[in-house]
Amino acid sequence: MQQQITGAFYGIAIGDALGVPVEFKTRSYLSENPITTLTGYGCWNQPPGTFSDDSSLTFCTAESLIAGYNLQNMAQSFVRWSSEGYWGAHNEVFDIGHTTRRALLRVGSGTSPLVSGGFEEFENGNGSLMRMMPLALFLTSENDIHIRYQIVREVSCITHQHFRSVLGCFIYVEFLRALLSLKDLREAYLQMQRGVNAYLGTQPFNPTEIKLYERVLQQNIAAVPEQQIISSGYVVYTLESALWCLLNTPDYPTCVLTAVNLGGDTDTTGAVAGAAAGLHYGYDQLPAQWISQVVKSAEIGNLAKRFMAAINTTSPQ
């Protein structure tokens, strides 16, 4: 499990950092100028190996979970990131989504993290999906799917309260949990589909919202042609893109480079795909050069080690 957890922590940071310089570039531009390794500057004028808010908030989530599940503590760690650059690649914030920014301002002014997140339909970006990986690992030993759903919902609600965002996070968490125990990607995907669909069938959720995830939950997202995969910042599309990349590639480097070269929200697609791919393939299958080049490499390794030790001794309350 240490291989998988460490792989996931480096996997998200590397996937994120690969995408940072080319965020907002089109797929056609990247097909002619593909990303093949860690580069720098570009869109955000950051040096090579710089990860964005995707990884920073993921590491804040992990740091908080080390002490056990405490939503208030987790939300405050996000505020610390936005105000002080806590877990920022260079201890500063250069990229924050509108919904996340508004939500963290609410938390900072005393709003409960249970109701601080955006709840309008237009506030369904990928800002809570991108930070779910540590929660999936933390919930490994929680066998009650309803408790898992409720915790995922609460953690998403810090920034994104809408059911659409919560459901995307839940699907991703259930898939990552499956990856921890199943070596076969296809079998892990099918297990997620079976488990999530069975659970949704017992709940009074809006069927119109559930249908938005039909390509992931009812069909085989891997079989969708690339031109029908949209790599924008919308939560449904980010989840689709990340799963599509993982299920259609043979190794970690190909997965994250494919994700980034889809264009659009390159850092988050790279991060969400990279966390899953790092978890699946394990630390040893990640390029050593990328591991050493990513900013805060030693700190990321240390966090993964501390997180692993913590989840072996604590379980969800």
TrEMBL record:
Gene Ontology molecular function terms on file: hydrolase activity; metal ion binding
Binding positions (Mg(2+)): S52, D53, D54, D265, D267, T268
Pfam families found in the cross-reference section: ADP_ribosyl_GH
Top-level taxonomic group: Bacteria
InterPro entries: ADP-ribosylglycohydrolase, Ribosyl_crysJ1, Ribosyl_crysJ1_sf
Signal sequence residues: none
Presence of the UniProt keyword Glycosyltransferase in the record: no
Free-text cofactor note: Binds 2 magnesium ions per subunit.
Essential cofactor(s): Mg(2+)
Keywords: Hydrolase, Magnesium, Metal-binding
The family this protein is said to belong to: Belongs to the ADP-ribosylglycohydrolase family.
Matching PANTHER family: ADP-RIBOSYLGLYCOHYDROLASE, ADP-RIBOSYLHYDROLASE ARH3
Protein name in UniProt: ADP-ribosylglycohydrolase
